[in-house]
Fold these 4 entries.
Entry 1:
Amino acid sequence: MTRDAWLPIPPKDFQGLPEGLDYLFWDGGQDFPGDPADCAVYVVPYMKRQNVKVLPLQRMRNVRLIQTLTAGVDDMIAALDLIVPGVTLCNARGVHDASTAELALTLTLASLRGVPGFVRAQQREHWESGFHPALADKSVLIVGYGAIGSAVEDRLVPFEVARVARVARSGRASARGPVHPLTELPRLLPEADVVIVSTPLTDTTRGLVDAEFLARMKDGALLVNVARGAVVDTKALLAELENGRLTAALDVTDPEPLPAGHPLWQAPGVLISPHVGGPTSAFLPRAKRVVTDQLNRFVNREPLRNVILTTGSTDN
């Protein structure tokens, strides 16, 4: 039986790792820490390109658990043909909630209050006052009401917003009110002053924010994307930005990284951050807790958390 567990954080930095596994450190370097065929648990390196993350998969013939350190698992989903059947793929639900929700609020406030303009004026040593919208009394729509979407709402509460509407793949009740299904977006979009997108990238959500979606947003509304770049149709968004009808604050783009010379860089009314929703000081302690708990569950044959799919299953 294979016993190796590949970790992208040095094993000595953990507390409470279970006995029964041999822990090897690999953070995407050129040399593997051992034979991939001996790997039973693969914790995917964080903030590495997709080609690095999938590099050992084809040789991991005995892997049983793949644990990402991201909420989205689109990199692994795209490489399912490299993974043997019977492998459980789990995401890192909960690891990035605080950091990503903080950034969603930061981008919202910075865009509404004109902070990018203040920075440019400061660079010119120019005192440029003016009147700007507040978040208070605004209607906010959260598209993608999972753990991150819920954390976003937690941070909106003290800002005296008029209303928060919630949308997820399917409707349900929540502690704060109803969560509407995606089918209700056409009705909800025209009512929102701010639309915050925090949905995972799936076949359903790819291109979800298209020309029709954007056209239903009210004049002057703000789109905030902390999900994945491909959830938004970049060409359609550019058209709305260039005619001045909408503004946007984007932590993710399509393409990504956004290449020099791309028209999105210079589009009016857009604030861009370079996909920094997750990598903060809050990441490491939460990542270590999730990995430690998951490995204890794996060794003790307890149900794993945050299961996305099992490869080769007809239920996927």
Entry 2:
Amino acid sequence: MPLTPTDEIVRRARAAGTGVGAFNVLQLEHAQAIVAGAENADGPVVLQISENTVRYHGALEPVALASLAVARGAKTPVAVHLDHAENPDLVREAVALGLGSVMFDASKLPYAENVAATREVVEYCHGHGVWVEAELGEVGGKGGAHTPGVRTDPEEARAFVAATGVDALAVAVGSAHQMVTRDAVLDLDLIARLREAVDVPLVLHGSSGVADPHLSQAVTAGMTKVNVSTHLNKAFTEAVRTHLAEHPTTVDPRHYLTPARAAVAREVAHLLAVLAP
């Protein structure tokens, strides 16, 4: 199946009132598992490659080309997306490699500098037919806008979208990155007000910390793209631990990566069902 652009997947989901699962790829097994889960659920999916993962691999190209290859071989629509890029040079490299969308994160900068840097990236990406997600305020888990009590202001969100021309906006509504418990409390009223304030899809980061019923409610309230990473990593690691505990003499990584890959595929299929309330 030809690679599907992120904007097409997100646009269709927004029109249907459903959510899009965007799952982070750490290595090839993650990409394969995410696509297998999407195929099992018969739904579209976004493979995300973060700047942290690029640093882990030492370069974007190997993990990006592997993800693109897995996506093109899928039986369901799959997009490949650069996540949380703070370096504009990495954005340009992603565009050159064929990724159809990027998330540019200048949220650590003062507001005016964030707007200027984001607008420059948007102009470059739109000139190459690439969709851009940005963030207003630093995502939680890093001492930023998603820490308790901090929220995105709808009027500031409206101004940011107008000033930058972004195609989607990550907002702070109560979730945080890297949560290993699923007890985050989302502000559903704020999600609804943000949905009314901006004319681009809203993105929920830190969704691993949100329980299934609240993810469904967030989509109903107005969230479209839902990012998940830590939750899948937990499933992956637990499957590896279980296999090694039951087979302590195992030395072939394929023997424990196979059940880990299957565990991630099951979680992806489950979450895609949750995001279609």
Entry 3:
Amino acid sequence: MTARSRFCAGFALALAAAVPVAAPAAGAPSTGEAPPRIETVLDVSGSMATRDAGGQSRLAAAKAAVQRLLDGTPDGTAMGLRVYGSEYAGEAMGPGCKDTRLLAPVARMDTASKASTLARVQALKPVGMTPIGTSLQAAAADLGDTGPRRIILVSDGEDNCAPPSPCQVARELKGAGIDLVIDTVGLRVNAAAKRELTCIANATKGTYVDAGDADELADRLDQSVKRALTPYAQSGTKTSGGKDCPSAPVLAPGQYLDKIRNGESRWYKVTLHPGQSLRFSGSVIPAGAWQTPTSVNAQLSLPGQAGVWATETAVEDRWSNVMSSGVQSERLSWDKVPSGTDSTEVCARIHSKVQTAQAEPVEVAVGIADQAVRPDGTPDKRVTTPGAEAGQPTTPSADSHHGDATETTAAAASFLDRPVTLVIAALAAFVLTLAIRSAVTRNRRRGA
């Protein structure tokens, strides 16, 4: 995950707190979760000798990318490397389509094993065919039969050895209930190869990306490893946003879980008293491949008031496993409250431009801050700021959850048992509050 995305994920959680204390980022894997085992499958077929990858051969670009990958992979990561097309230079389909070998077994990497793997990679020569389907079957076996597993396939062309069909292999592996995701990277590929690599990724809820040179390929490999090592755990009380503000459910402070499609808006309402400010965010969590660039917009508006009260858009043009956008309003003034009442329902909207083919989970965080005030500006002690722990679900209510169930994470449930974490989180939330106020000030200036 990019640093900006990590900040947004933490920001989204801080928004859910009614006081400046935030829970640990929901993106952290639950305690005891097994780390993934990862294997990169690299194309070393004859076409990798083509010199069109930023002034060097495709294989030279791949070697440079693998070196950067190894340098950036944390020690202790269980990773291996398989290649195909590296040994048989003839034209006979029999031996050519069996030309796949395990260059480095899946094991916890350290300085010595990284150096050994890199030396083997540097000695590779592009000579053979493209047995992708057979290599995927072998890679799945390399990764064992327990725990989460990930294959990162790099190819500059489509399989020329089928059967087995690579896409069918991917479907069969996923259909067998194997906890396996295959990410694919197309290095200077044509349309047919792109379709095949995209099919492989989609069949396992992985991601397909293009690469044109060594730098792009290194970035793609790095992003795929980060995706495997930083899973995002969804949490929140299930809700269903409206298609517009009048049809929206009223949400109390807390964290909720909804679904949203590309190009869709989901609306919610939050009751606010004069003197209080509203914190609101949405974090879209795509389960599979998505196209870049992508964005998420959070917006607040007041019924009967012209214009948008507060808005923020987060744009992502690189891989991320969660895309978040959040806003904090100014304190509600009495002139924005309907006559004869002491509160109003703020319209809160999340709009997704996360380009996937299906509805994706979206975490919605709601928080209320600041003391309510009377018309003369004195504190209104009759109104207490509702409490809600960031990262934990709210108590279900009929008007906000429509009878849906609750999903939580073990990390959220045990948060209050960790006083040291609580203090650290409080300090982090204070810094976030300053950043939020700065962002709100900038928004006001842009809107002036």
Entry 4:
Amino acid sequence: MTGPGVARDEHAWDRTIRLWDAYFAVAWAATLAFVLAAAHPALPVRAVAAALLVPLVPWYALVGRRLLQEDPPDQRQALRYLAGAIALFLPSAVLVGETRLMAFALVPQCFMTLRMRWTLVAVTLINLAPVAGWALLWHPGIEDLFANSLFAVVTFVFSVVVGSWIVRIIEQSWERAELIAELDASRHEVSRLSAAHGALAERERMAREIHDTLAQGFTSLLMLIQAVEAELDHDAPQARRHLALMDETARQNLAEARALVAGGAPADLAGASLPDALRRLAARHEATLEVTGPVRALPAAPEVVALRSCQEALANARKHAGSSAEVGVALTYAEDTVTVSVRDDGCGFDAGVPCGGYGLAGLRARATEVGGRARIRSSPGDGTTVTVVLPVALPRSTP
């Protein structure tokens, strides 16, 4: 059984050749019975007509049956087959009028195997030629001739009209089959592209997470190592303090790695509020934190973006402004937004010149994902300010 959404590989008539076999057998047997039971002409003539019908069976079984299953049928083979079938049919139909019942088995085969021009020629021969031959051979009366001619014309018109209608249905079915195949291919392509897009989005997300956590932590460790190397000989207490920061940073990196693998919240936010997480983060980077506005719990998404944005901005400040620069973090709670701002009084840079790094681009992408915006203000010699504004849902008031 074909499941929903799965295109069928074959048409209904492709699977019903046995029905056509049965139809041909019934039409042939009925014709033979009518021929042998006819009142006219004499029995020997009817026997000859019946004998002429017998070769139609092997001719159909060996040649016609295969043609009906071809897609599309070979036109030369179809013409040869139908020419042979008509050659066997016409003499019998001329001898005995009842033989014309066999036309109901031959006409559909014409429409199924031949192009329309040759189909009309074959249908005309099958319907009209037997009456003309029968009239020339037996010289019937006017009434019999009129009745047989009228019957032949009616069957001819019926054959053409119904056959043409069936052909149009078949053509439409082929068009629909092609559309279904195209839609099925498009569905698979969309599924593939969706999976590829999902994988790409996940890679980008992981890249941002690694950049904003592990990479920044390792950068901090390198900077602390350089500071310790410079302080070992002349400022041992400061070196020990930096070693303690290195230990804390390494532990924090390990916690971030575990949270990243587990897919949980950032380690700084685990069991802590956003101000507490930013306070610990600012302390590790020797920055100050100022919190304004009514502090409240926020949805997880803006809190994570605020924390990661602050991590990126602080790491950039220490990397580019230097360890001697003063760095301050401001966290502002408004009615429907939360704003994180990181400023330093370092050397600054030309904000109008595109930078090739990943950090600021990732920061902007994070803010955009939750409907926020990021703004970087800087100029040479005037420090840098990174501001991220994130929308937050208003708390519901209880009646």
